Amino acid sequence: MKIFHIADIQLGKQFKYLGDKARVQREQVKETFHRVLSMAVDEKVGVIAVAGDLFDTNYPSLDLVNFIKGEFKFLKERGIRICIVPGHHDALTVDGIYNRERFDDEFENVFIFRNPLGEAKEYADCGLAVFAKPNISSTSTKTPFPDVSQFKSEMKTKILLAHGDLQIPGKSADNYHPISISEIENMEGIDYVALGHWHSLKDCSAYSKGFKVPVFYSGSPELVDKDQYGSGNILIVDFEQSSPKITVVPVGKRKSLRISLDVSSFLSAGDIKEKIASAGDENTILQVELAGINVNNIFLNTNIMEEELSNAVFHIDIGDKTHLALNDLPEYPDKLVQGQFVKIMRDKISLIKDAEDKKIHEDALQFGLAELDGTEVI
Known about the structure:
By secondary structure, this protein is an alpha/beta fold. It has helices at 22-43, 62-77, 97-100, 103-106, 181-185, 269-277, 302-308, 337-350, 355-373, and strands at residues 2-6, 47-50, 81-84, 110-112, 119-123, 128-132, 157-163, 165-166, 178-179, 192-196, 202-203, 215-217, 233-238, 245-250, 255-262, 284-291, 293-294, 315-320, 323-324. The protein folds into 2 domains: 2-250, Metallo-dependent phosphatases (Purple Acid Phosphatase, chain A, domain 2); 255-373, no CATH class. The chain has 9 helices and 19 strands. The strands form 5 sheets. Strands 4-3-2-1-13-14 form a 6-stranded mixed β-sheet. A 6-stranded mixed β-sheet has the order 5-6-7-10-12-11, with no helix packed on it. The protein is elongated and about 90 Å long.
């Protein structure tokens, strides 16, 4: 018996940061989700377990509601069950999507965890029990884990399904359904913990210590946030052996990539653009940081560069954290406007302590010189 562990699909996400390509990515999320369901049919899985945030909002459009009903029907006709724990974006609120649309009443193969104290869903034909507690609000300081000791299931395989934030110091918040490390450390009688909320794949099994329970965030099957670099996967969990076998399956079309370039090693803006273009492809959401000392006094306009590189990748953001080599600027006689401008700006920059303010004035000096010299700013 094997299951699919998926989470954070976030159907209906607006993708405002993608501008004109937002609609394309919304459709891609739906396409990837359907492909995952088709894979479940091909793999003959016992259950698809959704660890929260099937929807990006509790108020999806009618078209999206009809889409998901079509997907549930697709699974029903092929004998595949799906169980869903409401998450952060689609919490089980009074007027939320799971109370307005009773998918589990309409489709017998769909189970939605509704008991705020937690409940067990048993699949006797494959000897599986799934324990979960729905999130009943978008934020909470309470654990999303139910009290497992209340369940007296005789099923051979037991999994815990939850949507929350494992409390790793420096990497988590305490108001997004926190899961304490001690809860994982003391997990007993559970064969697998399927988590949602983090959009990147993460193996957290090391925290289970002596009990050695596999604990995983599956991440989003399709990229939803541009700063998530490990998304685009689902997990197949096979319980045929004495211990679960977890297989990571890449399914996402888009990928997120971040690069940093030291401009001191480039001779021209053209060289920089060529390097950026080679870093990704038409399915890459690329974040670029330009850094270092601009020893060659290259004039950069990140907005224009983004526009010129827009066809090389799916989406691009370029940040400029470079600094001018003030001592290497061309020498201008004091009688020229350029000379007076450089002197005034150098003196002013030397007095600035704040790094962000200094960068603004360095940019002003560079672009001002370009205008005075009649140089094209790229």
